[in-house]
Predict the structure.
Amino acid sequence: MKITLFDIAHARSGDKGGNANVGLIFRSKGIYNWAKDYITSKRVKDHFGQIVKGKVIRYELPNLLAFNFILEDSLGGGGSETLQIDAQGKTYGQRLLMMEVDVPENLI
């Protein structure tokens, strides 16, 4: 079933220097277990497109049913740089929640 991550998860994001981080917290253990195979670093990097110029690293937090993604070199130098982009990662969580995913119906 095609849905967005918004339907099965919560997110929180922030920034440090030129990197952003996005915490993705799933609503059930079944969805978290499905997400371990489906929500990969590559899939997240592809979703953000050219915004992320470096690697995307995923850390698993099974006791919280969550992942923490580090999006390297995604802020054009960070909040202290004077650029023509929003150099903060505060909105990246909402952007990740817009990702479309194909979830088995029995998990919804």
In short: The chain has three helices and six strands. The mean pLDDT is 91. The longest strand covers residues 9-16.
